[in-house]
Amino acid sequence: MHRRAFAILACVLCLTPLAFLRSEPAVTAIAAVAMCDEKEPGEKLELYGQIRDEDGRPLPKASVIAYNTDATGLYVPRGSKTRTPRIRGVAITDADGWYRFRTVRPGGYPGTDDPQHIHLHIDAAVHRQTMRDVWFEDDPRVTSGKRRTWNADTAILSLTRRADGVWVGRYDVQLAGS
Prior knowledge:
CATH superfamily: Aromatic compound dioxygenase
Number of helices: 2
Number of strands: 11
Structural class: alpha/beta
Largest sheet: 6 strands, mixed
Shape: globular
């Protein structure tokens, strides 16, 4: 009887992590929106996450617009006649609220101390439009002074580097109702 109780407890403990893992799909299972060409100079980066409603439920069909600078910190080449960021994309969340972008790690703006960042604009029916700036924990421009000035619209992510050299970060957002 004692062994049976131990076996049941061991089974519950070993299944718990598996249940947690099932709640997050493999990053590669989410269709990635390419924000730039694969030949774009710079370190490759994938940003993914889940959009949730005000009650914390996954939100399908939310629009996630992302844009960032190139590796040199520019949105457009010098002398360009447009101000539209060159590296950009739009993802529509899947049935479980997931989005994923493939881009290059942005540079900070030249001649400033502004950190590397990606801009996100998130829209969903009957929810407030949400804008976020995503900074990176390992960016030397994310100083203690910058940390004191950031607000709720800024997130600081810890990135990991996969074996293939691609940086990966997850950023989830819970939207407010309208």
